[in-house]
Fold these 2 entries.
Entry 1:
Amino acid sequence: MNLPDQIIAQDGYSRQESAFLFEQAKKFFPGGVNSPVRAFKSVVGPPIFVKKGIGCRIIDEDDNRYIDFCGSWGPLILGHCHPSVTQSIMDAVQLGPTFGTPTRYGLELGKFVTEHNPYIDMMRFVSSGTEAVMSAVRLARGYTNKSKILKFEGCYHGHVDSLLVKAGSGLVTFGESSSAGIPESLSAQTIVIPLNNFEALEEVFSKYAQELACTIIEPVPANNGLLLQNSEFLHRIRDLCTEHGVLLIFDEVISGYRVGYHGAAGYYNIHPDLITYGKIIGGGMPVGAYGGKKEIMNMISPEGPVYQAGTLSGNPVAMAAGLATLKELAKPGFYEELSDKTSYFVKNIADYASERSYEFSIPSIGSIFWVNFSLDKIQSADQIDPNSMEKFKILHFEMLKNGVYFGPSGYEVGFISSAHSYDDLDKAIDIICKCLDKVFC
């Protein structure tokens, strides 16, 4: 199938208004967007401009309706405009959207998180996942009085300078910047090794343990495909960190409150020293958080010498949205029902592909899934065939024409929300399977 570079209208499906708005946006924003993946560079046509979301559906400026499996990149676990979340936001706004002071909303959300999460003694709210990670790494360095960081190739931790690095050549390497504007002196403080590689892990701790402040990992790597790790690997990281006095940071900006109420820490029964959150914890509002053991968190200013601040941290609107969301998630059976829906969705698509001998699989965990144009179990970024992204490009466009929305990159994961009914899933399954036929025709 040949795909033109720019498709605005085809087969009764039009993105004319979105295309017009995108051309206007290019005058004011680099690439016409405020975050790179939104530019649709990896897929076909102009980005869709969304004007409304309700339940599991979004509606764009051309009035196309889509069953949404992006969910604002994960935080909308209850779907768009969930009544209790929306009402909480409206109530908070009417009292005042921001004060730059402590508020009862922030206190109540912090209390709710710590009282229901055995891995968090104390926490601090920030305004994004990137800010949470940046603050946690600084805290780890301040607490240990060491400088180096260990991260894993294929894990993304926001656009923090010292973590926006890739591996060089070799099993154990110091990071090489993956963005202009990052000095080599910062990259050189980060050691990068492959995921799920015990040999490299042991080598790092043998050589550099006395210099390592922390090891940071997405326990559920979900920013570069869904690279599910063996439990034994994650437990070995915990053991080595404990043995050598290195702090373990779980970046749960995506997996937190997604794979279960206690996130990946609870799923794998591993107690990290620090955890970073984002996405769900603010109910879809711009928010992040980091937390962990009390003796570590007490190093943060004004209690301790590690400085971190945020003018809008603990914003009452975000706190209200987050509290309403977490109360819904705490209801009995919530995660079991969501997991059942995800299993149903994934199994039906996988069975269809298998019956037709398509080179296609759909790994999942909790309510996260990924479409993989391979039958191999993918556990590291270098196992992903870049050529498979051409197949995703076809799939993505065909799904859009038929009313299903995935994030605009084959490296991104998808999400099921509680707003997806089985009827919605059946409709989406039928569409996706027919679109797979177009891919493999």
Note: The CA atoms of residues 133 and 339 lie 28 Å apart.
Entry 2:
Amino acid sequence: MGIRSFLLLVLIPAAFFFSCQPERNFVEDSDARLEFTLDTLFFDTVFTTIGTTTEAFKVKNPHKQFIMIDEISLAGGAFSVFRINVDGASGMRFSDLELAPHDSMYIFVEATLDPNSSDEILRIQDSIVFEANGNIQDVDLVAWGQDVHMIEGGIIDQNTTWPADKPYLIIDFLYVDSLASLTIDPGVQVYLHKDAIIYIAGSLQVNGSQEEPVWFGGDRLEEFYDHIPGQWDRIYLSGSSHSNRITHTEIHNGTIGVQITASPESGLMPDLEISSTIINRMSFSGIYALNAAVSGSNLVVGDCGSSSVALIHSGNYMFTHCTFANYWPNGFSNRTLPALLLMDYFVTNDEDGIPLLYVDGVFENAAFLNSIIYGSHAMELLIDSYNNLQLSYQFDYCLTRIHEDSLSYLDDPLFTNIINNEDPLFDSIPVVYELDSLSPAIDAGLPAHATEFPLDLNGNSRLDDAAPDMGAYEWIGGAG
């Protein structure tokens, strides 16, 4: 085939193809307007200096012809706290954008708010302005910002009290020195950034009240993050810590709610009194204790990716009127450990990364009274000794979920007055674990165990009917 014939075969179809393409006719009528998927883009409350998540909306061309968007701009210009990205490009002003018939483009928006020198939550507003065919249209941008006490690598080396004037935001860590104490007043809200940790070498006093509980959680305030675990690291009570107390507190969405540990070689036993507290949605454990002394009452430890409560190697533990109930969603991860774990050994690594096995720890005591130990697995209580030693424990007047082939509790004199494998019928899983009116835990506790804790987690009396209910909550609503 000659070159002329070849060019004819190639060029003629190409010319035919391009001649068939529709003309880029633009609608210019002043009545031709853009459409948007929303008229106002709202951002949840965000802390100043911390950026929001990225939100988005679409601008649409509802017409049968192309439309020319003359300009898209932030009304606040360079002074705006908002930032926009138009169809993949970042900036404050965009010109001469063509939008095909019945097509759309994405507008992405985020914001970083400046400190406002106020303890109040303030409303910040701007808008994105669209100009096309002489029309000016806009989409409002609205965010709420709150100032915080910002803590980046904070060290407390003297006795310190945090008042409830505005929230506290820990970016990386807060360290309380061994000779210092941190006291947290009622109503304080403590937010922790990703991987942030509170490390206590001295003493921690969290003094929430029934009316003004203290709150610990992640710093993402958008609704999407309300039930997402693993947003921050942990509250760590080290071996040298002492006289630790947490009351009327909520701890949510971290990796470990409270870790209290001392190495066997140290001879130390850090202590914690924790009461009227909820720990929920931890990606590992709610309470992880190793060689520690912990007393808990009116305590709820809920959904965790590992055990809700893990008591390891040795220690002295007393839990009364507690609810350990693990309904960890499989959508997060596959939980393999029970709600409550007692074991007299553990494995760690030395400074060279070589595994070290510690065995034959001694529990001075591990008592569980008028409590609920339950969850979504067939076995929610594991007692494990590396050398098959008898551990010191007591379960009295408890509702449990025990697979009898795995733990012969009926033959164990340390288990007394047990209700096993009866659903406690929580009224509001997975939030507060209050009892339904038909719960077998109602009036099933021993009054003598309740005398020291006459009020439940909600402040209701346990001693006004036939017997106290098992767990952290007393059912109120009629005669028990």
Note: The chain has two domains: 35-145, 148-450.
